[in-house]
DNA sequence: AATAAGTGAGAAAGCGTTTTCTCGGAGGGA
DNA sequence: TCCCTCCGAGAAAACGCTTTCTCACTTATT
């Protein structure tokens, strides 16, 4: 036996004893499963209420083979995008009586599989959010995790639902927006190397280049947060570009701040775009032109896809592959460039 | 019995059979508890590795009476402050092999106790973050939750550690800062009614009033997010004040944006302060003068306090009451007021 | 009136572990 | 050589619940 029996919590046995019935009957009335005599049921309920009995979820989980919990693993909990997904997921899941367990891989690629595995063992399913691992590893891991929902990645072999944003399309539209304003020299300030969404932006921009050979488009390596945007300020200025496509809103904001410090006006001197449309984007000065991804929907849809899998329990292998088109949100950080003087 | 036995996960029994030993022995080598013959141990380990055996955490939890999980309940997961606490907690807990389960009460006061109770039953402890419930209810709930850490609230009766920020002190220092710049007419844009930290600010400002009877200090009712700050713009302008103490950084940012839209310059025409120093605060335009709370420490310290309780298991009733003094962070959103013209 | 069918509650098995208890065998001292 | 002690491994109980199985009892059917 494990624990000392001293002052243990009130269990089903206590209720059974007080009500003068068996454990089984208590369980039945608590779960409303089988028919039980109304009189007895009332007695049990009274006893349960009096003892403030609350079923032990661990015991239930073991017996039922389910935990009513799902896990989510994100690369960086400091990123507002992932925070928003987490929030949407959590709220949607709570509506159906599920809780969410979080795991933050802190951008350590090698930890992802381990964290996901551990989460899966404790939960009824896992949402893998923008995993940085390689395709091969993901393909191998996915079946292991089975009730799995992927965000910003897809698998081919297994039938796992995925939600993704068409970053390639979005970045092209932003670039197009800058061009239509009259910009001819652009810079893409790229994101984390292992980020699939960054790769998608890159292929989108390749496409853009083909369609607009007359536009100069430089690539600058950056990161995914404020600081990396801020640090890129000088390189951006040195590039001589008038239109900047930042990897995301965070990077754009860091850049905005850096430009402001150096007295460079946005959008008069340089136009800046972000990506994601995080809640803060419309409150920056100037408000940020960006590509809005329906971030709140992502979380709740992730839950819906998860629920479908949990409920259908290996029934129909519906492999939903949802792809969201970003919507360009034109604000004040972009404008026609000043007349050239170089 | 619960589940169909078809295609169930590999359990301890499978390993035992493959290694030709008993369940007990497998458990022993997996946990390294008792002495077991090195040869047998090796055989067990080999079998476990070959079958990719991973102990079922639910079974372990039931036997061990612990889940290696803690819960956190927050009023609003959209608030960067709570996000940061969650993140700090999660990372610190992960370092000790613990996971965290989240519950978002969505500012619904009546849900808090229920969520906290459920979380507690599933976890080894609960972190209650800025609960909105009344003092009486909190006092009654706390012992129920026992391994409990309170953030931004305290209890008297029970010995529960609490971490709090001295909001009263911080708001006074901000007000003082505005006064020393020359402001004479201030407004406090208050936060959620049930927020204890808002009440602390109010008592701090009462104190401030006593010490500075010559200063006009109006109170305006607001909320805790962007939008409420934005919506207060006209009321702020109508107040005729030159120095605005916003409830927190979010409110301040909303206000900043509203003022900008109406062509009012910050800090030339109006000075604005925030509270919390969320990561975004130094990237607003102008960068926000605010009171920095050591938000990252809060999360990790919360974990430390939790760990102490879990480990000491009813040993020494160390009731740590940590209080953090905010540090005023002077940036560009505050300056001397323009000469009066009214 | 006797048998069949139905109903509802208790007994017990099972979920997957850990840990106590028990016991056979080996080793050491007398 | 015999007995006692020690050691290590298996048997089984325990954790707290759900659910099948079983069975006594009641009600319907002929």
SSE diagram, text form:
Two copies of one chain form a homodimer.
Chain A: H1 12-19, H2 23-31, H3 38-51, H4 57-64, E1 69-74, H5 80-95, E2 99-104, H6 109-122, E3 125-129, H7 135-144, E4 148-151, E5 162-165, H8 167-181, E6 185-190, H9 196-211, E7 216-221, H10 226-231, H11 233-239, E8 243-246, H12 249-261, E9 271-273, E10 290-292, H13 295-312, E11 321-324, E12 327-329
Parallel strand pairs in A: 1-2, 1-3, 3-4, 4-5, 5-11, 6-7, 6-8, 8-9
Antiparallel strand pairs in A: 10-12
Chain A binds a DNA duplex (30 and 30 nucleotides) through residues 1-3, 11-13, 21-25, 27-28, 31, 33-37, 40, 55-65.
Protein name (chains A, B): LacI family transcriptional regulator
Region (Disordered) (chains A, B): 312-342
Organism (chains A, B): Paenarthrobacter histidinolovorans
Task: Give an overview of the whole structure.
The structure is a homodimer of 342-residue chains. The first copy, chain A, has 342 residues and is of the alpha/beta class. Chain A folds into 3 domains: 12-55, 434 Repressor (Amino-terminal Domain); 69-165 and 295-323, Rossmann fold, CATH 3.40.50.2300; 167-293, 3-Layer(aba) Sandwich (Rossmann fold). Chain A has helices at 12-19, 23-31, 38-51, 57-64, 80-95, 109-122, 135-144, 167-181, 196-211, 226-231, 233-239, 249-261, 295-312, and strands at residues 69-74, 99-104, 125-129, 148-151, 162-165, 185-190, 216-221, 243-246, 271-273, 290-292, 321-324, 327-329. In chain A, helix 1 crosses helix 2 (23-31), helix 1 crosses helix 3 (38-51) and helix 5 packs across helix 13 (295-312). Residues 1-6 of chain A have low confidence and may be disordered. At the A-B interface, helix 4, helix 5, strand 2, helix 6 and helix 12 of A face helix 4, helix 5, strand 2, helix 6 and helix 12 of B. Strand 2 (99-104) of chain A pairs antiparallel with strand 2 (99-104) of chain B, so a sheet runs across the interface. Chain A binds a DNA duplex (30 and 30 nucleotides) through residues 1-3, 11-13, 21-25, 27-28, 31, 33-37, 40, 55-65. Chains A, B: Residues 312-342 are annotated as: Disordered. Chains A, B: Residues 10-64 form the HTH lacI-type domain.
């Amino acid at each position: 036996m494990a624990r000392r029996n001293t002052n243990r919590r009130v269990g089903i046995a206590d209720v059974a004893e007080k009500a003068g019935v068996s454990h089984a009957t208590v369980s039945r009335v608590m779960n409303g499963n089988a028919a039980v005599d109304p009189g007895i049921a009332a007695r049990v309920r009274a006893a349960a209420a009096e003892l403030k009995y609350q079923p032990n979820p661990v015991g239930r989980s073991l017996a039922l083979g389910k935990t009513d919990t799902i896990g989510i693993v994100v690369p960086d909990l400091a990123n507002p995008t992932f925070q928003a997904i987490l929030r949407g997921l959590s709220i949607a899941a709570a509506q159906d009586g599920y809780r969410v367990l979080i795991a933050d891989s802190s951008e350590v690629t090698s930890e992802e599989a381990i964290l996901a595995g551990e989460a899966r063992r404790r939960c009824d399913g896992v949402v893998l959010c923008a995993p940085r691992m390689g395709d091969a590893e993901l393909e191998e891991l996915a079946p292991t995790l089975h009730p799995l929902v992927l965000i910003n990645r897809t698998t081919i072999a297994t039938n796992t639902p995925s939600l993704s944003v068409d970053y390639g399309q979005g970045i092209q539209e932003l670039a197009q927006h800058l061009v239509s304003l009259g910009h001819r020299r652009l810079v893409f300030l790229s994101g984390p190397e292992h980020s699939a969404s960054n790769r998608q932006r890159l292929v989108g921009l390749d496409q853009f280049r083909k369609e607009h050979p007359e536009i100069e488009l430089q690539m600058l390596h950056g990161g995914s947060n404020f600081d990396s945007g801020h640090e890129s300020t000088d390189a951006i200025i040195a590039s001589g570009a008038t239109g900047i496509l930042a990897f995301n809103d965070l990077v754009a904001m860091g850049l905005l701040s850096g430009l402001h410090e150096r007295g460079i006006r946005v959008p008069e001197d340089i136009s800046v775009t972000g990506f994601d449309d995080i809640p803060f984007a419309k409150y920056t000065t100037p408000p940020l032109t960006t590509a809005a991804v329906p971030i709140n929907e992502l979380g709740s849809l992730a839950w819906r896809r998860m629920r479908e899998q949990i409920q259908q329990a290996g029934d129909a292998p519906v492999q939903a592959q949802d792809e969201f088109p970003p919507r360009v949100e034109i604000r004040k950080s972009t404008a026609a460039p000043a007349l050239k003087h170089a």
